[in-house]
Amino acid sequence: MADIQRADAQRNKVRILEVALPAFAANPQVSLNAIAKLAGVGPGTLYRHFPTRESLLLSVYQEEIQTLGADVERLLETRSPLDAFRTWSRKLAELTRLKHGLGEALESPAAEAVISASYEPVTAAIRRLLDAAANNGDIRPDVDAGDVLLLLSALWRVPAGRQGLEQADRLLDMIVDSLAVSPL
Description:
Elements: H1 2-26, H2 32-39, H3 43-49, H4 53-78, H5 81-101, H6 109-117, H7 119-135, H8 145-152, H9 162-179
Helix pairs in contact: 1-2, 1-4, 2-3, 4-5, 4-7, 5-7, 5-9, 7-8
């Protein structure tokens, strides 16, 4: 019986995390009770897994960073290296814009530790995408993943809405162009 309860609790936690990201993206001020309702669980269930708003936000952020890392290989299997880089970079920008939009909710020492811990997995994913593009002859092999992450930070500073997304795509085009192998 305990195994069934643990499995049910795990399913509830997964479901809460699944609905939380789109809920926060749609409305950074969304209530935890609204997220519980979206997940189809009671508020008590949500609070057992995530006793504070910050704990839920940090869990969502960690989950998404892990997913981004795992997406690299899937993208490289189905797309050209540069297209995989573009797609992955857009997803990173969306996640980071959400994180920035949550502002004060992610300014505690615990949040700073989680966000700092995401640097290595993110730069490793960028390095993998850059290596694939360099091996394909699309970009220079000497490109530094940390430098590219800094360049990509422009993508999450564009304004919200359609015009902001168009601007982000133009910026991403400039970033990709700056990485290209220069003709002699």
